[in-house]
């Protein structure tokens, strides 16, 4: 049992949880994730470790409640418990001083991007951050990111904050501007966003790291369910990733496999909203 | 021991049949197929044993269960004595009685099998073990132990780890098991289905360990949450029994289509997470009208019979050799057939074919013929030119086997491995690192429950000696 110490709503459906998990907190490095089960019988849900404090033995998780599994996790109040928290899983981010980097975050991906961007800044990189969301209320951590970024650029689909459009608009400007052009790009967000970013940087030959989110179960390389084709090889995202070279990822295959259980997921969502499952 | 039946009388008794759930009924539910012998049946079957002095059956058992002894007690109706004799050598008899490949182990060596059918050692073992579980309150508990003041860590809660932990605890050591998953049992829980091995048995065994003081910590992945190095610092000795949890991929086109599973994923979803088995389970599974399972071992049988139970109209085994070459237990093959499973033999997969939306729709296959024997002594399958054909299948399950998972071993380069990534040990289970022992599938590659248990037991004895000398 893992105690939830804080549960704060950052944006509609998006929660910041602080969870007591001393062993995981002590071992964790940026880029790694945990697998969480809210209660017996529930799904195993992979979540990036947003931040960790070894001294207090706590993890910060950012959870977007999109289906039954994540809704049950965010429904745990402070003082309540999560049944299982296992990790830290996956490879830590390779942090290096590239000079100039761009960090691109979309939706809940921004929250996950935060510790990575911070680590890159601490390693001496000049970090330009671009964050996007549907509308102003979905723009996360702008102030926090500004604390160490050379610049934070914001885009929203409805134009309610920052520039109207997608993060790729701002990235295009960066790539075209010799004075701002990044040596490396880190993109974390929905699959279509990461794919668009990778396509955009490809002709410029700018290294692009993406963090993949295929469907996972065990997170230890045991089931093979999280396989994603990278280059010519199927890799297990839970042990080899979750970060990969965006120019080599088969995004079509990834997006496709993510739809494998849409029917069942819709039923579970309905059941969670009210009554039992049909 | 009084024995009033003559050999001739014993020889005249026919082998008992295991009562089982009706095949049509059971291919739609997950309840155990074998219902267990009655006391009368068990005693009659026990009377078939000739109590051979040379004990060939004992030599056939990897942990040398004293078969004539426990069977003789059972034949006389002294179940407590039978249980005592059985459990001296086997810590998990309720499991082994159900899943051991008896036909190549104890029963293969039984003299009664030379002319007729061997004594049903597995059925009898199961009977006695189930009786002991049901009557544990009336049986003497474990002997009181003298605390040694030493602490041991066990990595993995499968049969190897469970056995090692039990043995170490009864020798007075303080034992903690670390398990990566959220529940206990290893393959016994996430791999072998309820209809072969009810999970209640594992729960009882785990409770028994907790009663003798073993601590079990789930959600701890050694190599990630804690390193082997940390365990070495914090504990006086470590046993590694982390199994062989890494699927071997098919390596054919279409393997990443939706509907293509590894056996580990498919079985874990159903057995560990309750998908399709527990009403309104949170975990999804694709059921499929046509399901093709590639492989011929126990894992393949478990997958295909699970698919039947999830509603598949056609549940098929696709195997590149012939039926007699299949490594699965004979009983599982027999049960699978009764349940309507189709056996597509001498057939190798070439590719999984998909539709425009990325769903599997068929398995492209090729016919094989048996050629010369290969290194394993089995005749090598060779492909028949021009024999390609497509089997309709929306779900394709790869049950080719598993290998050593490098998650733990990669973090301790000093630990000596063989070329397949399995941990090297001596015959006592000692690894190349002092105080670190290992056993089960991580040492042997995919093997059997009883071999894993035997390893756990042997290693625990060596660890005990190590702990007492240190
Ligand atoms: C390495 C990794 C890190 C992640 N980090 C975060 C994070 O920090 N914050 C966050 O909010 N989300 C994160 N996710 C995504 C999160 O795991 C999914 O949103 C969640 O599992 C959906 O479950 P659900 O039952 O709520 O929704 P469902 O309605 O069941 O599913 C919605 C969609 O989520 C995906 N999904 C479903 N089950 C799984 C699963 N077991 N594993 C992965 N994806 C699944 C599928 O595309 C599905 O269509 C991460 C995923 C991965 C793989
Ligand atoms: C589907 C299937 C059916 C089978 N049927 C039979 C049968 O009928 N008869 C038979 O005799 N054998 C059968 N076998 C084989 C048998 O189950 C195995 O040989 C046996 O379980 C091996 O035991 P083990 O303790 O070595 O490993 P496992 O049972 O694999 O247990 C290992 C445990 O360690 C955990 N673990 C792994 N890595 C770590 C880590 N880094 N840190 C912490 N914990 C970790 C795993 O989660 C697991 O719980 C079958 C196997 C499968 C897959
Ligand atoms: S443990 Fe297995 S091999 Fe040994 S006697 Fe029992 S059933 Fe036979
Ligand atoms: S070989 Fe067969 S008959 Fe002889 S003791 Fe063993 S079980 Fe009994
Ligand atoms: S989640 Fe099972 S192998 Fe990655
Ligand atoms: Mg879900």
TrEMBL record, chain A:
InterPro entries the UniProt entry points to: Cyt_c3_hydrogenase_gsu (IPR012165), Dihydroorotate_DH_Fe-S-bd (IPR019480), FAD-bd_FR_type (IPR017927), FNR_nucleotide-bd (IPR039261), OxRdtase_FAD/NAD-bd (IPR001433), PyrK_electron_transfer (IPR050353), Riboflavin_synthase-like_b-brl (IPR017938)
Q: Which residues form a coiled coil?
A: none
Per the UniProt record, one Pfam family is NAD_binding_1
To which species is this protein native?
Answer: Geoalkalibacter halelectricus
Q: What is the lineage of its organism?
A: Bacteria, Pseudomonadati, Thermodesulfobacteriota, Desulfuromonadia, Desulfuromonadales
Instruction: Write the protein's name.
Output: Sulfide/dihydroorotate dehydrogenase-like FAD/NAD-binding protein
Question: In this protein, which residues make up the domain named FAD-binding FR-type?
Answer: 1-95
Highest taxon, organism lineage:
Bacteria
UniProtKB/TrEMBL annotation, chain B:
FAD/NAD(P)-binding domain residues are 151-456
Question: Which residues belong to any copy of the Dihydroprymidine dehydrogenase domain?
Answer: 26-135
Tell me where on the tree of life, at the top rank, the source sits: Bacteria
Sorted alphabetically, the keyword list is: Oxidoreductase
Which GO molecular function terms does the record list? glutamate synthase (NADPH) activity
- What Pfam families does its record include? Fer4_20, Pyr_redox_2
Q: What is its EC number?
A: 1.4.1.13
Q: What is this protein called?
A: NADPH-dependent glutamate synthase
């Amino acid at each position: 049992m893992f105690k939830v110490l804080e549960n704060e709503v950052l944006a509609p459906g998006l929660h910041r949880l602080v969870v007591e998990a001393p062993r995981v907190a002590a071992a964790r490095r940026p880029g790694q994730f945990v697998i969480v089960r809210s209660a017996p019988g529930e799904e195993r849900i992979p979540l990036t470790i947003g931040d960790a404090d070894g001294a207090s033995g706590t993890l910060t998780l950012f959870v977007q409640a999109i289906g039954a599994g994540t809704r049950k996790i965010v429904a745990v109040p402070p003082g309540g418990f999560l049944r299982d928290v296992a990790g830290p899983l996956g490879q830590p981010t390779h942090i290096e001083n590239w000079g100039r980097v761009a960090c691109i975050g979309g939706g809940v991906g921004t929250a996950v991007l935060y510790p990575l961007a911070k680590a890159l800044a601490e390693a001496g990189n000049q970090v330009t951050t671009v964050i996007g969301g549907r509308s102003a209320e979905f723009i996360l951590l702008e102030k926090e990111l500004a604390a160490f970024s050379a610049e934070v650029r914001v885009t929203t689909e409805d134009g309610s904050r920052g520039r109207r459009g997608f993060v790729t608009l701002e990235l295009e400007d960066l790539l075209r501007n010799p004075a701002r052009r990044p040596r490396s790009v880190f993109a974390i967000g929905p699959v279509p966003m990461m794919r668009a970013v990778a396509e955009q940087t490809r002709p410029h030959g700018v290294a692009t790291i993406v963090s993949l989110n295929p469907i996972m179960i065990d997170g230890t390389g045991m089931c093979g369910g999280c396989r994603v084709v990278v280059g010519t090889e199927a890799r297990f995202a839970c042990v080899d990733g979750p970060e990969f070279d965006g120019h080599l990822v088969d995004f079509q295959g990834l997006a496709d496999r993510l739809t494998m259980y849409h029917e069942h997921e819709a039923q579970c969502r309905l059941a969670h909203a009210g009554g039992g499952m049909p | 021991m009084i024995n009033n039946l003559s050999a001739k009388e014993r020889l005249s008794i026919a082998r008992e049949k295991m009562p089982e759930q009706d095949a049509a009924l059971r291919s739609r539910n997950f309840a155990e197929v074998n219902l267990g012998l009655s006391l009368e049946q068990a005693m009659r079957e026990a009377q078939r044993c000739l109590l051979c002095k040379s004990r060939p059956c004992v030599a056939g058992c990897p942990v040398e269960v004293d078969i004539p002894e426990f069977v003789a007690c059972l034949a006389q109706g002294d179940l407590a004595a039978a249980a005592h004799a059985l459990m001296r050598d086997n810590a998990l008899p309720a499991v082994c009685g159900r899943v051991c490949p008896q036909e190549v182990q104890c029963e293969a060596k039984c003299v009664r099998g030379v002319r007729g059918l061997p004594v049903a050692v597995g059925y009898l073992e199961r009977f006695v073990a189930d009786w002991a579980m049901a009557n544990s309150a009336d049986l003497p508990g474990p002997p009181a132990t003298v605390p040694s003041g030493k602490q041991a860590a066990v990595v993995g809660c499968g049969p190897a780890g469970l056995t090692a932990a039990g043995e170490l605890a009864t020798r007075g050591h303080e034992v903690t098991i670390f398990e990566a998953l959220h529940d206990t049992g290893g393959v016994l829980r996430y791999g072998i289905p309820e209809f072969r091995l009810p999970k209640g048995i594992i729960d009882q065994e785990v409770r028994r360990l907790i009663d003798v003081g073993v601590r079990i910590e789930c959600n701890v992945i050694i190599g990630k949450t804690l390193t082997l190095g940390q365990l070495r610092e914090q504990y006086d000795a470590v046993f590694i029994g982390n199994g062989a949890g890494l699927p071997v991929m098919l390596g054919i086109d279409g393997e990443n289509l939706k509907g293509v599973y590894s056996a580990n994923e498919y079985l874990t979803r159903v057995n560990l997470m309750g998908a399709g088995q527990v009403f309104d389970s949170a975990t999804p599974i694709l059921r499929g009208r046509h399901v093709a399972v590639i492989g011929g071992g126990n894992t393949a049988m478990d997958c295909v019979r699970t698919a039947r139970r999830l509603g598949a109209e056609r549940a098929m085994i696709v195997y590149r050799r012939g039926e007699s070459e299949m490594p699965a237990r004979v009983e599982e093959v027999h049960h699978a057939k009764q349940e309507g499973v189709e056996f597509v033999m001498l057939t190798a997969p070439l590719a999984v074919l998909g539709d425009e939306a990325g769903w599997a729709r068929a398995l492209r296959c090729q016919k094989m013929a048996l050629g010369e024997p290969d290194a394993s002594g089995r005749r090598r399958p060779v492909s028949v030119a021009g024999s390609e054909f497509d089997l309709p299948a929306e779900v394709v399950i790869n049950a080719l086997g598993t290998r050593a998972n490098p998650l733990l071993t990669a973090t301790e380069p000093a630990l000596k491995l063989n070329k397949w990534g399995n941990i090297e040990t001596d015959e006592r289970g000692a690894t190349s690192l002092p105080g670190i022992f290992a056993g089960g599938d991580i040492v042997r590659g995919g093997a059997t429950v009883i071999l894993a248990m035997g390893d756990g037991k042997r290693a625990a004895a060596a660890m005990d000696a190590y702990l007492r000398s240190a």
